[in-house]
Amino acid sequence: MATLPGGNYDDIITGTNGSDFIDGGNGDDILTGGNGADTVLGGDGRDALFGGNGDDLLMGGNGADVLDGGNGNDVLDGGDGDDYLSGGNGDDMLIGGRGKDVLDGGKGDDVLMGGDGDDILKGGEGDDVLMGGGHNDYLDGGKGDDVLMGGTGDDFLKGGEGDDFLDGGAGNDILDGGAGNDILVGGAGNDIFVFSGGGGQDVVLDFRAGEDVLQIERNINGLEINDASDLAARVTDMGGNAMIDLGNGDSIMLKGVSAEEVHNNPNDFFVIH
C-alpha cells in the first residue's frame, strides 16, 4: 500500500493503481484514490475526495467537503461542515456527520445517515435505507423498495417508486409514499400523509384523528372528490380497519381506526389539496 501524505497547503494528490493511503492534512485539497481499495482523509479545509474504482473509505474531516465514491462499495464520512456525498455505483454507506449535508446514494443498495443538521438524503436506484437523524431533513428514496426513517425534527419523507416503509419519527412530519404499496408510520407529532393518483395500496399504522391528517389530491384518479365528506363516503370496514377506496386500484388502510369514526368526523381525517 502506498502512503501519500499532504501537508499544510492546498494539495493535489492522485493515488496509484493499487491500494493507497492518502492524507491531505490541512488546506483545501483535491485527493483522488484511483484504482484499488483506497483510504482517503481530507483533514481540515474544504476538500474534494474522489475514490475512483475499488471499495474505498473517504473521510472529509473538518470543513465543507465534496466526497465522490465512484465505482465500488464505498464508505463516505463527511465529518463536520456542510458536505456533499455521492456514493456512485455500488452498495455504499454515506454518513453526513455534523452540518447541513447532501447525500446521494446513486446506484446500488445504499445506507444513508444524515446525522446532525438539516440534511437532504437521496437514495437513487436500488433498495436503500435512509436515516435523517436530528433536525429537519428531506428524504427521497427514489427507485426501489426503500426504508426511510426521519428521526427527530420536522421531516419530509418521499418514498418514490417501489414498496417502501416510511417512519417519520418524532416531530411534525410529511410522508408521501409515492408509487407502490407503502407502509407509513407518522410517529410522535402532528403528521401529514400525502396521497395522489397512482399511489398504490398503502397502509398507515398509527393515524391519530385530531393530530394527523390525510392530504388527498382533489378529484384523485378522476373521482369527484371536493371535500372530506366525499372521501368519507368511500370508506368501508375491513377487519375493524377503515379502508379508503381512491379509485383505479389505489387505497389507504388506517390500522386501528374504524370506518364509523371516519364517517362520523370526516373533517378530522381529510384535507383536499
Automatic annotation (TrEMBL):
A GO cellular-component term linked to this record: extracellular region
Name the UniProt record assigns to this protein: Calcium-binding protein
Domain of life from the UniProt record: Bacteria
Predominant location category: secreted
The keyword Secreted appears for this protein: yes
Keyword DNA repair among record annotations: no
Keywords: Secreted
One term of GO molecular function: calcium ion binding
Pfam families found in the cross-reference section: HemolysinCabind
High-level lineage: Bacteria, Pseudomonadati, Pseudomonadota, Alphaproteobacteria, Acetobacterales
InterPro entries per UniProt: Hemolysin-typ_Ca-bd_CS, Hemolysn_Ca-bd, RTX_toxin/Mannuronan_C5-epim, Serralysin-like_metalloprot_C
PANTHER family linked: S-LAYER PROTEIN (PTHR38340)
